């Protein structure tokens, strides 16, 4: 038994000045083979006035906001990855190249002062790079949560990208806790040796060459310890950069 065709009445929907014929609601409801989309359209037409019009600015705002979010995502990805890579490379290169050169110094006072200049010069750039990339990765993790991907088997969703961005966020934000927790003691001792030299100089004069050699050995050990800790801090930041790259390419 075939389904009788739907006859369109003279009712019309005015859209942008054009009369578009639409079937009456009663006829649509009585049709057994209507699609879900048609049902939804019928319910909308019964609850809303045909004469109501949506302001063009509404669609403009939606399109503009969507375009802005989509267009800014690659920028945030590039800036975050670049900043994290620079931070990691700076830490690692400092430990591999700069610290061995400083250790060639034969005066404890000079060695401590040179290290202190190196350390203070890197505080603002390193914090800015690490924290900036951490914020960027956090934003990308949030965006990935809003748009999850299908799992490989086609069932459920995959949160791999989001988890990678979260890991990158934690790794970059870990710069602060790592520095304060693991490197704080060494940094404090070297800072005292570099800035509070009055007491040390008087002790050297009293102790002679033996005291000078002992102080040089201790200062070198402290600088070497800081260099090792700084190297592993760079590895942590490099891991965060790698996770950011993996998330972007996934």
Automatic annotation (TrEMBL):
The keyword Membrane applies. Its main location: membrane. The chain crosses the membrane at residues 79-103, 123-142, 163-187, 231-249. It is found in: Membrane. One of its GO terms (cellular component) is membrane. Keywords: Membrane, Transmembrane, Transmembrane helix. It holds the Pfam family Anthrone_oxy. InterPro entries: Anthrone_oxy. It comes from the Eukaryota. It is a multi-pass membrane protein. Coiled coil: none annotated. PANTHER family: ANTHRONE OXYGENASE ENCC, DUF1772-DOMAIN-CONTAINING PROTEIN. Belongs to the anthrone oxygenase family. This is DUF1772-domain-containing protein. It comes from Aaosphaeria arxii CBS 175.79. The lineage of its organism: Eukaryota, Fungi, Dikarya, Ascomycota, Pezizomycotina.
């Amino acid at each position: 038994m075939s389904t009788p065709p739907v006859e369109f009445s003279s009712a019309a929907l005015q859209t942008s000045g054009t009369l578009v014929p639409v079937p009456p609601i009663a006829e649509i409801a009585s049709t057994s083979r209507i699609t879900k989309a048609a049902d939804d359209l019928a319910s909308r037409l019964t609850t809303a006035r045909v004469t109501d019009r949506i302001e063009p600015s509404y669609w403009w705002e939606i399109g503009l906001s969507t375009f802005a979010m989509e267009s800014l995502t690659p920028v945030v990805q590039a800036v975050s990855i670049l900043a994290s890579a620079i931070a990691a490379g700076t830490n690692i290169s400092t430990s591999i190249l700069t610290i061995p050169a400083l250790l060639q110094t034969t005066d404890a006072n000079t060695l401590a002062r040179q290290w202190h200049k190196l350390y203070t010069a890197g505080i603002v750039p390193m914090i800015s790079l690490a924290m900036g990339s951490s914020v960027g990765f956090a934003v990308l993790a949030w965006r990935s949560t809003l748009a999850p991907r299908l799992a490989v088997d086609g069932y459920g969703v995959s949160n791999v990208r989001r988890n990678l961005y979260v890991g990158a966020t934690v790794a970059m934000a870990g710069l602060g806790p790592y520095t304060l927790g693991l490197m704080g003691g060494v940094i404090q001792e070297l800072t005292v040796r570099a800035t509070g030299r009055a007491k040390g100089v008087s002790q050297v004069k009293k102790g002679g060459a033996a005291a000078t050699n002992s102080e040089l050995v201790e200062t070198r050990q402290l600088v070497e310890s800081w260099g090792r800790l700084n190297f592993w801090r760079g590895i942590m930041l490099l891991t965060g950069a790698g996770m950011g790259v993996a998330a972007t390419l996934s």
